[in-house]
Design goal:
- By secondary structure, this protein is of the alpha/beta class.
- Helices cover 46% and strands 17% of the residues.
- β3, α3 (83-100) and β4 (106-112) form a beta-alpha-beta unit.
- α6 packs across α7 (223-234) and α13 (366-391) crosses α14.
Length: 418
Amino acid sequence: MSTSSGEQAFNNVRKLINDVCNRMNIAEACRLRLMECERELIVHFPVRMDAGTVEVFTGFRLVHNDTRGPGKGGIRYHPDVTLDEVRALAALMTLKTAVANIPYGGAKGAVICDPKALSQSELERLTRRYTAEITLLIGPETDIPAPDMGTNPQIMAWIMDTFSMGRGYSVPAVTTGKPLEVGGSRGRFEATGRSCMISALLSAKHLGINAGEATVAIQGFGNVGAAAAKLLAREGFRLIAISDSKGGVYNPKGLALEGLLAQKKETGSIIGFKNAETITNAELLELRCDILVPAAIEHQLVKANTSSVKAKVIIEGANGPITPEADRILGDNGIFVVPDILANTGGVIISYLEWVQGLQFLFWDEAEVNDHLQKILTKAFAEVLQTSQQEKVDMRIAAYMIALRRLATAMALRGIFP
């Protein structure tokens, strides 16, 4: 029987957890607990459509581990999302929050639907009914959702409002990634792209690469890729290639980012941009450049194409863009990889800061938020790099080692009830 991509993703995360636990002689009880999600809720719920018909949708909300704090993770709306995919994403959130050393566990949610095929009113009814179904798990002290693929700040506002109606008062800290007007945080939109930029700067410094002369190729021009492109350009990096779902553009002398952003907004794609050569997403990954940022979808670098990668540094803007087989090839070829659980933690770090602000009903300006993000990520990067050098392992294994050590320590201190 063939293995689905979601099941394979979860198996990959579990195998890496298992291997690192064995390497570090982590207690068997800790390893076994991390092999599964602590809580898994599957809901099937009706939604009245605009035409008057009723459709039943399936949704999930999972908490992988909450030893170090409330569950934290996004909600995904996608027609092909699976339970195993959500399990893998929840497990990665457990590791990501531990690497950043913020007091969260890992969680994730999803609804099997195509949000593009739903009207705004259908989307709202679906969201509110899904929220009512998962209030068994979510809450500001237990599990805090955020946006993910197919969801946005408006959907987080509906979730917050629905949850608050059940409490009888406003609970802004139940979700993060909300609009500013209802308790969102400044700096949230660019957060993941900002963490990619910070990771690129720290990597360049470590490797002796001059940011003012370094070239960058970015796969993906959504929220993460576009923000990373803007922030990297501001730091002096030369953007030579960018792609979206329809393909990419390349100019070794550099791309005019403002023009690209304007064309994307006007036409929906960057294809055909003036003074640039059209390339495929696959070709972009093989360009000669200093820094490659895969910020699109998972499994873009696989065994078949990784030997052709010519970048010196890879910053994982997306979750899981490199398969385990490809990871080994990159290591053998001396390419410095900053893994997703470190490079794209900006979103969850800002989510943490938004949660703190919501609990206090005290909100900060954008400079203060970005300063907190910079400090948290810089410290995390230094810790991972130090472990990588001391243990003679790559940055991914080093990040897992730090995360699992923190989780194992917390589990040992808390013990097992009863």
